[in-house]
Amino acid sequence: MFRPTPTPPAEPVTSTAWTILSNVGAFIQANPWPSLAAFVIAWLFAVPSARASLQRGFQSLGITKITASEIEIAFDTESRKVIERDIQQAFGDIEKFREKGRAAVRMEVRQLGIAAEFDQLMHNIFYTKFRDKYGRMNTYTGKEINARATIHIQDLVFSTQLFQLLDYFAFVRGEGFGRALSTRYGIIGRVWRSEEPASAGGLTDRVATDSSAQLSAKETEAQITEIQKEWGMNRKEAVDRMQRPSYCCIPIRSQHGKTLAVLYIDCNVANFGWQENRAAAELDSLEKACAEKLKASQIPKLLEQLDGNIAKSAPRVDEESMA
Q1: What is the set of domains in the chain, with CATH numbers?
Q2: 3-class DSSP state for residue 260?
């Protein structure tokens, strides 16, 4: 009987193409999401209509060229106008909130009695430290001494700014409430960041030792430059600050040690009118007197209450954590 010869089993396909396809399939199974993303990108660039839509989307963002090594961004006139309008709108919204926030804080300060407590505190400090010279002509500088004081807290909007909580305390009360200043600005910024008291008889050594001398134009420019470098000020701020060259600043802490604010005192004459040979000791004494009287007052407790109330409603932006 005839029996057909059995057909041997087929040899497995081992071509290069089959091997590549098998590897691709295994990669897709192991990495489904990256594979899908690669497929979508390839489709967007391969299909003309999809590519045109993608191009329009990039152009709306100001992206005009994309290669493997770079992204070229160039805003056209219309895109730039839209961005400028959006930025101006954002700053306008912030300023509107500031206006409402200032009004709310002023009312809160009045209700808590912070201004009255601060006036009493500073009256005691000024009477103790300056009663023999305040408001009188100083023979060392030839100027009438006029010290003033205020408190700065963290800003209502940005964590890297300070907010002037009170108008200046002085014999002739000054304004200033609601100003926003950088935490990099002057002695208030230095004390806020370091959380340590500091005082300065002058913005520069020359101011501290010889404020009555007439400076040449070259010397004035050199001082302005030095103030800008040392105290984080722009030119206008440096020129203005030369009119009030001596400072004392103290951190105000809660009972748990959190820095709530800084007490700031300045004066229109170097070393607060003290002779140079007494200035260092007197400035140190002023720092200690402020710290002791602050601790004995109701100011820290009232500021802690105010800080809690602001934290509940103010949308503070922590810029440092976003960097």
Answers
A1: 20-73 (no CATH), 102-322 (3.30.450)
A2: strand
